[in-house]
Write a structure and sequence with these properties.
Blueprint (H helix, E strand, L loop, with lengths): L2 E4 L1 H9 L3 H20 L15 E4 L5 E9 L2 E9 L59 E8 L4 E6 L1 H16 L7 E5 L3 H14 L5 E5 L3 H12 L21 E5 L6 H11 L2 E4 L11 H4 L9 E4 L12 H8 L18 E3 L2 H7 L1 H5 L7 E3 H20 L18 H7 L2 E4 L4 H17 L4 E3 L3
Parallel strand pairs: 1-6, 7-8, 7-10, 8-9, 10-11, 11-14, 12-13, 12-14
Antiparallel strand pairs: 1-15, 2-3, 3-4, 4-5, 5-6
């Protein structure tokens, strides 16, 4: 049985060579699997009955190891990763300092010189008042591997999981990004691998429409390195052709804001309020910004897509529980607002069971099972709507043509997903690793990347 072995460098080569069409194709495979996870019976290998809950093992040094077995329609797999203890989260602002009242600050320090960044990335980069190596957070990137098996249980691949984990999570949350009506302003908390892949995929999928990418992070240098990598992933290889290269243009401006900046409170509020899309990718144990930024009448005028990625334990939280409670509250509770974007009355998740056990934001907000909806269920509704529209078109019923998901849902689901306030919480499933891992292995074999053992 042939086996493919992909090192971290091999995985990065594959992932950074992906075009927007490649991303669409892999997302389609992932959507199929998540649809089957949420809706299929036990005759299908992707159904939830074949997806055991991950096993946590905490060691005395504070590190946590996760064991994630999974089954797909084409085979099985298990990912084993270890995360360091988190002593200092990437972003832990003092909420008392971030009062929603008026605050004044002076001595703003900013630089806009082109020498500090690649020429294809433009816009202000806000420097902190002080920077040092001691202020950098510890590395929390997962380390480990993914082992893949065919349907008969024969080993088919061994893949380094560090980059793959961040990629498959971003791939999932960006499935919903594709539906958004406006994505002009993107605000990202964090500068690790999750932040990197969320920005990269957003630019690949909607790059021509994104005007601002605002990165909020404790370390200025780390955020700058991340943005530089978007422009040139392999500086030591001048022959590497970056599919993202043409996505950086004069319309895409980037900025970096650190917690040490003298104008941090004002600019944080500005970046949150102006955002059409917010990616939260930090292992924070405190909300990243006060709830009033989004819950005040001014903050509620714009619809946003907010993806929560960083927390993976009940005590971790990136978004204030009040924002979560507001998102799942009955619509009649919002009638006192003169103008506000639609709430869906639900949080979108990859797995109801996993999120209600692990996601700190949902646990602390006391979210109930009937207040969350799985991505796979949305895929089911969309496909049912597309089928209904196609049937109507064949019958000559032009009134129903092109209605999309609204054909089977009259409650404004499509309007909410495209223009309203949508919050997605992704904790990650072993199924996602198996499906995306198999796609990466397939592409690696096609492009001659990695080590291939004929007989294992």
């Amino acid at each position: 049985m042939p086996v493919t072995v992909l090192s971290d460098h091999d995985v990065q080569r594959v992932l950074h060579s992906l075009t927007s069409q490649d991303i669409d194709d892999i997302q389609q495979s992932l959507a199929d699997a998540l649809h089957q996870y949420s809706t299929a019976g036990e005759e299908d290998g992707c159904c939830s009955a074949y997806q055991p809950q991950r096993i946590h093992m905490s060691r005395t040094d504070g590190a946590t190891s996760l064991f994630m077995p999974a089954s797909s329609s084409s085979g099985m797999g298990v990912k084993v990763i270890t995360l360091d203890s988190v002593k200092k989260p990437d972003i832990t602002p003092d909420l008392k300092r971030l009062s929603i009242g008026s605050t004044k600050s002076s001595n703003t320090t900013s630089t806009t010189g082109s020498k500090s960044r690649p020429t294809s990335i433009s816009g202000p980069i806000l420097t902190p008042s002080t920077t040092s190596e001691d202020s950098k957070p510890p590395a929390t990137a997962p380390r480990g591997s993914l082992t893949l098996f065919d349907s008969q249980g024969n080993p088919s691949a061994l893949v380094n999981a560090e980059e793959l984990t961040a990629f498959r999570t971003a791939l999932t949350s960006c499935m919903l990004l594709k539906r958004r009506h406006k994505v002009h302003d993107l605000t990202v908390f964090g500068a690790g691998k999750q932040a990197y892949w969320h920005i990269r995929l957003a630019l690949l999928l909607r790059g021509s429409e994104i005007h601002h990418v605002n990165v909020i992070n404790r370390s200025f240098d780390r955020a700058r390195e991340m943005l530089m990598k978007l422009y040139n992933p392999f500086p030591q290889d001048p022959d590497f052709e970056n599919p993202l290269g043409h996505k950086f243009g004069s319309k895409t401006k980037t900025s970096i804001l650190t917690t040490g900046h003298t104008e941090y409170t004002r600019l944080l509020k500005e970046y949150v309020r102006s955002a059409h899309v917010i990616f939260c990718t930090t292992p924070s144990t405190q909300p990243l910004f006060p709830p009033g930024y989004l819950l005040n009448p001014e903050g509620r005028k714009k619809g946003r897509y907010i993806a929560l990625i960083g927390s993976y334990k009940p005590h971790m939280v990136e978004l204030h529980p009040d924002i979560i409670r507001n998102a799942v509250a009955p619509h009649h509770e919002h009638r006192h607002f003169h103008k506000h974007q639609q709430e869906g009355g639900a949080i979108i998740v990859d797995s109801v069971e996993a999120c209600l056990q692990e996601a700190g934001e949902l646990i602390q907000a006391n979210v109930q099972p009937d207040q969350v909806v799985e991505i796979g269920e949305l895929v089911m509704l969309r496909r049912e709507a597309e089928k209904a529209a196609a049937d109507a078109a064949r019958k000559g019923d032009t009134d129903n043509k092109g209605q999309g998901i609204q054909v089977s849902d009259n409650s404004g689901l499509k309007e909410w997903l495209c223009k309203g306030n949508v919050i997605a919480k992704i904790v990650g499933l072993g199924l996602m690793d198996v499906v995306v891992g198999n796609e990466v292995v397939r592409i690696a074999r096609e492009r001659g990347i990695g080590t291939h053992i004929a007989e294992f």
